[in-house]
Amino acid sequence: MAVVKAGAYGHGLEEIARALATEELAFFGVANVREARQIRHAGVATRIYLLGPTWSAERAEIVARDWTPCISSLDEAREFAGLAAARGARLKVHLAVDTGMGRGGFVADGLPATLAALEQLEWLEIEGVGSHLPSADEDAPFTRRQMARFDAILDELGGAARFRWRHLSNSAGVLGYGNGACNLARPGLMLYGIAPLPAFQHLLRNVMTLKSRVTLLRDLPSGHGVSYGRAFVTQRPTRVATVGIGYGDGYPRQVSGRGAEVWIDGRRFPIIGRVTMDQMMVDVTDCTTIREGDEVELFGAHLPVTEVASQAQTIAWEILTGITPRVMRCYSE
């Protein structure tokens, strides 16, 4: 199951869905019905799985379009069953089980009785069962216990063969742990070339590169402030390149003053002063070859997005999904 929620992690949902549709996937994983519609509008026929709970007003469309929801409550299941009965076709659903995430799904205790109640709803087909790993990139002992607990739950529910699809692993789970009794995985971040477990980064290739251009070159004297608040003051005559990108494009303002760099003309240069909404300033004093119009890499092959995220005191997921719509996406084969 390729997880393509949040605009395929900022990469562009329709384009990424079309690119991945040739890979014989079991499902595309999305967060909501709007994302499901976008995939269909892109002409992609791969099955769609809704990763979280749905609002009551959305469920008739889910049934009508034969998308696959996960079920977290009996009330939700009963409504889906009623809608499927009205349509005259059984709806395939997956049982969501909470083994430690605390965000959704049935709690693990009493699941056999829950499944028995669900099986009384004849218009639902309990096709799969899944859970989610909250700490696979941070807490290996807990994750191993959680995976063992999930395997035990499958046994409690009648064995792995009881379900066509069994799924638990996200990207960190895929990379760092065995799959146990599962036969389906839900990679997200790793699809876009970033390993949530750094030891595996060498296996992946970066997908997104964020670029801009040098829009202005200026020479500032020693003692001159740069950007809002004069948080940076030059200590020497300084050649400053203005770059046409800022937090209005999704590049994080929080990196200001924390040693963040950009890549120009084959090397790194430091960002100076505060990142503004539409522009940033870079110290290029030590290079005489940079010209207006030169390409600037903010992250990509030479500057890992994980480095930018660390400097912004956040995670790569937030940086990628925060790139705003005004940034033009260009795709290459």
State the secondary-structure class. Answer: alpha/beta
Main β-sheet, in a few words? 8 strands, parallel
Please tell me what the overall shape is: elongated
Helical content band: 25-40%
Mean pLDDT: 96
The poorly predicted ranges are: none
What is the CATH top level name of the largest domain?
A: Alpha Beta
* Domains, number: 2
- List the helices and strands in order: EHHEHEHEHEEHEHEHEEEEEEEEHH
CATH architecture of the largest domain: Alpha-Beta Barrel
Number of helices: 10
Q: What is the CA-CA span between the terminal residues?
A: 22 Å
CATH topology of the largest domain: TIM Barrel
Strand content: 15-25%
Q: Give me the count of strands.
A: 16
Superfamily at the CATH H level of the largest domain?
Alanine racemase
Radius of gyration: 24 Å
Short characterization:
The protein is built from ten helices and 16 strands.
Explain what the structure shows.
By secondary structure, the protein is an alpha/beta fold. It folds into 2 domains: 2-196, TIM Barrel, CATH 3.20.20.10; 210-321, Lyase, Ornithine Decarboxylase, Chain A, domain 1 (Beta Barrel), CATH 2.40.37. 26% of the residues lie in helices and 22% in strands. Strands 1, 2, 3, 4, 5, 6, 7 and 8 form an 8-stranded parallel β-sheet that branches. Strand 3 (48-50), helix 4 and strand 4 form a beta-alpha-beta unit.
Features:
333 residues; alpha/beta; TIM Barrel; Lyase, Ornithine Decarboxylase, Chain A, domain 1; 2 domains; 8-stranded parallel sheet; 6-stranded antiparallel β-barrel; elongated
